[in-house]
Amino acid sequence: MRQPITFVHGNLVFGAGGADDAWALYRLTTRSYAGLTSARKRELLGEIAGFAYTIAADFQILRVSRSTSVEDYADMAYGLADAPEPESALLDRMVSAQRARVSLLASVTPEVFLAVALRAEPARDLRASVSRALGLRDPRALTARAMAKLIQEESKVHARVADFLDCERATTGDLQWLVRRAFCRGLGEPESDPRWLPQALVLDSDDEDGGWRFEPLESDILRLFDAPIEVGARALVTHSELGETHQAFLAIGALPETVAFPGSQAELLFAPLEALPFPVDAVFTAQWLANDRAVALTRRRLVDADNVFAEEQDGHHGATALTAARPAVARELEEYLTSSERPPLLRSTISLAVSASTSDELEHAVERVRAQYAPITLHRPAGSQLELFTTHLPGQRAGTRAYEDVLLCEQLGAMVPTATHQVGSDCGFYIGATLTGAPHPVLMDLTEAPRTSRPPAMLCSGTLGSGKTLAAELLALQAFAAGSRVVSVDPKGDHRLDAVVDPEDVEHISLSPDPEFRGLLDPLRIGPQDTRTDLAYGFLIDILPSPVPASWQTEIRRAVDVVGESLLASCAEVVDRLINGRDDATEAGRALETYAQGGLLRLAFAEADSPTRPALAKRLTVLRIANLVLPLPGTPRAEISSDERTGQALLRLLATYATHLMASDTSRHKVLLFDEAWMLLGDAAGRALVQRINRLCRSQNATPILATQALADVGDLDNLLGALFCFGVETDHEARQVLDLLGLDPEDAPLRSRLQSFRRGRCLMRDYEGRVGAVQIDLADQDLLDVLDTSPAHARG
């Protein structure tokens, strides 16, 4: 095998053609696809087609699979532990159960790379061949000036690619991984050298270009190709450090003249690959044909189609339907190419790499792949397997031209190579598996949002018994096991985290009207310095019957602002100031005094000698309020009773109090688990509170997990929430709300029906990257499930 890669510099890859065969390598961001509206799927098609239309260069798209072994998962899980206080026994128990689950799943992640040729295909004339043979056209002859030109050209290419696709420049580590994994495909991840960096000698240049020239050290590149290859007629056997892997390479044959998009027959670089239970790599190579060449080629094909039709028409049986249709198709293509847009064409090949540990397993896998792509024919070229193996390396052109096809840019877009069902964090704890396509592990890292400056709030929504509370507790428990501090706000009293962890790590705060708790939730005491007056004003208005006179609102606002200037201010002082005022102020004060003297509302009106609560003393704090009465979700404010109004206002203060307790030690990650979160999402005041909680949690290295049975108006929620777990719903209207919030198609009737059928931990999940997928939440530990699950169905079982 001729050395397919001769030098690497940054994200520049020099192919077998040396200096005339330079490519720029990029990593493309994958996009969640299932459930997107037809319009958004067409937008994705348009982005890919737009790139192909404007790039004006040959290119190669590699869709490959990165695998995670059970050992790698365990190392990663333990690596998430936040020293010095991980809950070792609980962490060991959870990781052990999760290892068993991960081992049963195809733990692979699709990754997509794009290589763009910086120069046209190397010349094939005699002079160029002699120059390359003499070493005059490879990187040895690459001067500093020529390298600078390539770097400048790469910058232009990067800008063109970034106009359409979310991309980043690949690293030498990416290049090393792409090459090494080709020799152990199907066996696991190769060992990479973190210090590997191709070197070159810098020598004086005596050519007319002047400057310096680079002479690469061949051993640096050859080190990547140190695995022997046995070449068979229709398969290869590579001998890597991980063992022998049997590989077969399939070329996609003729494509249908017309296909429906969206649809699996069009989505050739996504749907069939995701449906298979084992990883298959794919490569798309394209020679970019400018419009004038494309028109000439089409006209030659039009002549051929007319001639074949005429010959068959004069035969005994006449022309076949396919032959009769080809002239019309060719004329349509000619009309398309001669339009004002002057589009290009792509001379393309698509190749698939299938691997297995034995030859028998390989043959079985090949048949599975062929069945998945049917009715499209997959060829297994004899004698061309090594050339196709090389085609799957970065910076390569088609290994064989026998299976070329000329495609429109839109046809490539319809293949959606960047689409994925993958969802979740790149590294994190196992929380479940995908439900669409082959099942893959779903990982989640609660520290991701605070680390990446995204909205940290996570939402778990769904009807009773759908699994939302269990999922929220699982997320909080995993963070606790890794060393995070957890505050659980439990209005209903059904959280069971304290039954799982060591009692020495738990403190319970059960708030009641008793004098010892008076003023503990006073918004002027627990609110952040810059927002506490707004919090106090909103609370005082909320506990009054609706509608609150405008004059009262003005007096309350004025009193809160004046009293709030003192560091030891309290709502009791606000009431005193109002009572000692005039007219409307006095009336408002008397009304508030009536509420402040009774029941649970004493919690919000501190006096001078009211106790204050220190910051967290234990790793898990459970907050409850005795006898809290809450309105039903969706109840209009005018119909809410006095007790329900009190419960709603106190629950919002409880959320603020929980963040107040977490204010110390920003170096340690913290989790706020808040049930009945619809109280925070149902109106503008509640959403403003969630916004404040988000801001505080970002600065305090914390993640709020909000659990709710009902979703209010979803229009203003998207910017408040990072990750979403949307479990089953009861009505079609609720299903539309959920799909709208997730950015999916509310008009997709099958998806709405599926969402209504979700129970027992099935949900649609949106991760911090915006990817959406159907997921089965899985605790992996039956004993843990028995403790945490309090649903009636589970209790009956």
Automatic annotation (TrEMBL):
Entries under InterPro entries matching the protein: P-loop_NTPase, T4SS_component
Domain of life: Bacteria
A Pfam family that the UniProt record links to this protein: AAA_10
Protein name: AAA+ ATPase domain-containing protein
Species the sequence originates in: Paraconexibacter algicola
Lineage of the species this protein comes from: Bacteria, Bacillati, Actinomycetota, Thermoleophilia, Solirubrobacterales
